[in-house]
Specification:
Blueprint lengths: L1 E8 L5 H10 L3 E8 L4 H15 L2 H4 L2 E6 L7 H9 L3 E6 L1 H6 L11 E7 L2 E7 L5 H6 L2 E9 L6 H20 L1 E2 L2 H11 L2 H5 L20 H9 L2 E5 L15 E4 L18 E10 L5 E7 L5 E4 L15 E8 L2 E7 L1 H13 L3 E3 L5 E4 L1
Helix pairs in contact: 1-2, 2-4
Length: 364
């Protein structure tokens, strides 16, 4: 017997809601996904949502992903994330042609198809949303889920449609290029070329900035924050939030710096908890730390506690955050000469900034 479900995002049922509803039924045997592009936030939200739903079973499920290098919209770290998952394989549609033509495709790859097989049913979710945060939860999207039981009797029309979708995926999979470490390196070099970082192609996760205050970051600035792998900042004098005789660990940053760390530029009220991210320091184990929009109209990031996972102090240090996975960052303390190098790299892509206090920061 065939069954249907719907996506009417963001007003009620999101793409991620529909996917989790399927996974909650249990008995998942395979996950096949073909999407035009994948962003860091999209990879983070889907993987985290699937793990929260399936727990330990998530690791054992075979996963196949087909996406593209088209227009340099897929983010390399999102691909690293998908490759790192257990029982996961990634293929790229017409990869060689795109790399040879600076990301321009011969034929655009534009599907948004999620095919899931369980021990009871075959599911096909087809909608308008890519594997981005906007496509999965926040943007205006619509779609349908159709499923058919695997145990006779089956409805012939639905079964034939499901079979056709799986045949299309199999043919597209065979025609696509396996994502290897060398291929990912080649794409990363194209994606992180200064011309692309200076003027990145927008995705659904890029929304116009409504902040028009003095010194506000522009929409183009925010796009650079989203795509860059590195964020550096002169920490300045850190508030002694841990007591008058202890070094502090709350870093005040330019408002909307949060976009680099994977969060939306949507305006929030003062003292709003924006979210948590994973930070590791000096090769140590990563831990979760909070990001808040403070009542001083700055983004406030909690850092590893000095001398208990962090450096002796952060005051007047040069901090470098490197994105290692969606939602995960490596923190490094830099020297004055390293900070000068970071500034030069940021300047080449118009990604160098200065706060009203004089503290410099940037992305590259």
């Amino acid at each position: 017997m065939s069954q249907t479900d719907y996506i009417t995002q963001p007003s009620s049922r999101t793409t991620l809601d529909a996917l989790q509803s399927i996974l909650q039924n249990g008995g998942v045997e395979r996950l096949d996904i073909a999407v035009a592009y994948v962003t860091n936030s999209g990879a983070h939200d889907l993987v985290q949502g699937a793990f929260n739903t399936l727990g330990g079973d998530w690791a054992s499920i075979p996963k196949r992903w087909i996406t593209s290098f088209d227009y340099c919209r897929t983010e390399p770290i999102a691909l690293e994330c998908l490759l790192s998952l257990p029982n996961s394989s990634v293929r790229i549609h017409d990869a060689a042609f795109c790399l040879e033509h600076d990301g321009a495709p011969k034929v655009p790859f534009h599907p948004k198809a999620f095919l899931i097989r369980t021990n009871q049913r075959n599911y096909a979710l087809v909608g308008s949303g890519n594997m981005s945060r906007s496509g999965l939860t926040r943007g205006v999207e619509a779609g349908l889920v159709v499923s058919e039981g695997r145990i006779p009797p089956v409805e012939s029309t639905a079964a034939a449609a499901m079979q056709a979708m799986r045949l299309w995926f199999s043919r597209t999979w065979r025609a696509s290029t396996p994502l290897t470490a060398p291929l990912l390196t080649s794409y990363s070099q194209l994606f992180e070329h200064k011309d692309n970082l200076k003027a990145p192609i927008p995705t659904e996760d890029d929304v116009a900035s409504t902040d028009t205050g003095r010194g506000a970051l522009s929409t183009k600035d925010l796009q650079r924050l989203r795509v860059c792998r590195h964020f550096w900042i002169d920490a300045g004098n850190i508030t002694r939030n841990r007591g008058p005789h202890l070094p502090g660990n709350q870093l005040m940053m330019k408002r909307l710096s949060r976009v680099f760390f994977g969060f939306s530029s949507t305006a929030v009220s003062e003292n709003t908890h924006i979210g948590d991210l994973e930070i590791s320091f000096n090769g140590g184990q990563g831990a979760r730390f909070s990001l808040t929009y403070s009542d001083n109209q700055m983004d406030k990031l909690v850092l590893p506690i000095p001398d208990a996972g962090g450096p002796p102090a952060y005051d007047n240090m040069y901090l470098l955050f490197e994105r290692t996975m969606p939602g995960a960052f490596k923190l490094t303390i830099g020297t004055r000469s390293q900070k000068a190098q970071w500034l030069r790299r940021s300047t080449t892509i118009d990604g160098a900034f200065r706060m009203s206090s004089g503290r410099e920061w940037g992305v590259f």
